[in-house]
Amino acid sequence: MHERAALIQAVRSFFIMQGFLEVETPIRIPAPAPEAHIEPEPAGEWYLQTSPELCMKRLLAAGCSRIFQICKCFRRHERGHLHLPEMTMLEWYRAGADYHDLMHDCEGLFAALAADRQIMVDGKPIPLAPPWPRLTLAEAFQRSAPITLQQSLTDDCFEETLVRDIEPRLGLETPVFLCDYPASLASLARLHPDNPAVAQRFELYVNGVELANGFSELTNAPEQRRRFQLDQEAIVGLGRRPGPMPEPFLADLSRMPAAAGIAMGIDRLVMLFGGVSTIDQVVTFTPEEL
Amino acid sequence: MYTAADLKKGLKLEIEGNPYIVVDFQFAKPGKGQALYRTKMRNMVNGNMLERTFRSNDKFEKADLEERAMQFLYSQGDDFVFMDNQNYEQLTITRDHLGESINFMVDNMDVQVLLYRGASIGVTLPTSVTLRVIRADPWAKGDTSGSDSKPVTVETGYELQVPPFVNEGDLIQIDTRTGEYMTRVKE
């Protein structure tokens, strides 16, 4: 608990030193971003946020340029050794930036955190000095999986292959960025200018654990509405009722500058630096203990 | 019907016509992707292990399992005859479906019989049983081998290690889950 408090304090200091403004946005909202595989927790007529993403982007549209937030997020039915239905999230956004800038931020954040602590893998501390390898998803499949990325999408076994063959080998020697996700798996991200089949989205992996998800933000409101509609159809296909369209967000999106944003799980960050193997060990109480 | 969200250790479900019990499972959810439930299960009839990865929308049948209180009446060759405590009907289970349990069953013992689709697939015994020692070597005084246990045979024919002070004719309590000696019982 002491280490958790110290770590959060260090994260906060890092962003303040980098000129970021700490913000607070409402936790209870009328319309979370429709996402096929994230189920929001109802709270009266509204919902608890699954992420502060939409409100933080509206702050960018309102003129903020560098903002961060540490807050609680809620996702139904997510429970495992790396998942809690209520978790603590760090999100930060940079106007005028793209996903490469966020990767630099991650490297800088870890350099600051590593001043007082280290991450052990198999009993040895791993080097955290930048730059960390950038591995595209296509390369990762080629390296570790029996099938190609494209084949896994065609056969509808992308997640199974990722979890079984790729994730356990990521970030064992140094942290690694897994980059350039298929466009279909990045609803809120900007597509790659040179290759519209992939999105400018990455995930940070350390010791086989997915720690952060960042991307260059999509700023095209009609395109974002079209993607949300596809997600709403997917939600119906899965037998759930989609929430309402986040109209105020879509209205503000056309005014939002080019930007990049990222979400990092604080609980998992504490796990990694604390050298523990389940998320239960880094929170005061699990849902089962309440 | 169960969905993947109901999965937990100990859940009993039916897959391809066989009853399985979940012995381990891990929730995984690669960022923005769908939830996966990596599950290890044991076949409750033959003990084989099965590993499967489920998605959150996968559904399974509950295993049609029923536990009934019965009394073990007697054995004849490889047939073991039980009586249902409720309707007094008799049921015969063959030796190969009882496994290690036969080591600890004595006439008139109360047991739970597990039925899958009406057919017996095993019995659950009380966690401990009291059995009489029918063969034991006397403890040689002055034995300097340093051994602190000796083998004995109980009335069911089962052999186990006990402390040297246990004699032929004694009653001893045995843990049916481990098959190990617990204590000597005074008559």
Could you explain the architecture of this structure?
The complex is a heterodimer of chains A (290) and B (187). Chain A is an alpha+beta fold and 290 residues long. Chain A has a single domain, classed as BirA Bifunctional Protein, domain 2 (2-Layer Sandwich). Chain A contains 9 helices and 13 strands. Chain A has helices spanning 2-17, 53-61, 99-113, 137-144, 149-154, 158-166, 221-237, 247-253, 266-274, and strands at residues 21-22, 28-29, 42-43, 46-48, 66-74, 86-95, 120-121, 124-125, 134-136, 176-182, 198-206, 209-216, 259-265. In chain A, the strands form 3 sheets. Chain A has an 8-stranded mixed beta sheet, sandwiched between helices. The radius of gyration of chain A is 18 Å and the shape is globular. The two termini of chain A are 18 Å apart. The mean pLDDT of chain A is 95. Chain B has 187 residues and is mostly beta strands. Chain B has 3 domains: 2-62, SH3 type barrels (Roll), CATH 2.30.30; 65-124, Beta Barrel (OB fold (Dihydrolipoamide Acetyltransferase, E2P)), CATH 2.40.50; 128-185, OB fold (Dihydrolipoamide Acetyltransferase, E2P) (Beta Barrel). Chain B is built from no helices and 16 strands. In chain B, strands 1-6-2-3-4-5 form a 6-stranded antiparallel beta sheet, with no helix packed on it. Chain B starts with a strand and ends with a strand. The model of chain B has no long low-confidence stretch (mean pLDDT 87). Chains A and B meet through helix 6 of A and strand 3 of B.
Give a quick rundown of the structure.
The complex is a heterodimer of chains A (290) and B (187). By secondary structure, chain A is α+β, with helices and mostly antiparallel strands.
Strand-helix topology:
The complex is a heterodimer of chains A (290) and B (187).
Chain A: H1 2-17, E1 21-22, E2 28-29, E3 42-43, E4 46-48, H2 53-61, E5 66-74, E6 86-95, H3 99-113, E7 120-121, E8 124-125, E9 134-136, H4 137-144, H5 149-154, H6 158-166, E10 176-182, E11 198-206, E12 209-216, H7 221-237, H8 247-253, E13 259-265, H9 266-274
Parallel strand pairs in A: 1-5, 9-10
Antiparallel strand pairs in A: 2-4, 3-4, 5-6, 6-13, 7-8, 10-11, 11-12, 12-13
Helix pairs in contact in A: 1-9, 7-8
Chain B: E1 2-3, E2 12-15, E3 18-28, E4 36-43, E5 49-55, E6 59-62, E7 65-76, E8 79-84, E9 90-94, E10 110-116, E11 119-124, E12 128-136, E13 150-154, E14 159-162, E15 171-175, E16 181-185
Antiparallel strand pairs in B: 1-6, 2-3, 2-6, 3-4, 4-5, 7-8, 7-10, 8-9, 10-11, 12-13, 12-15, 13-14, 15-16
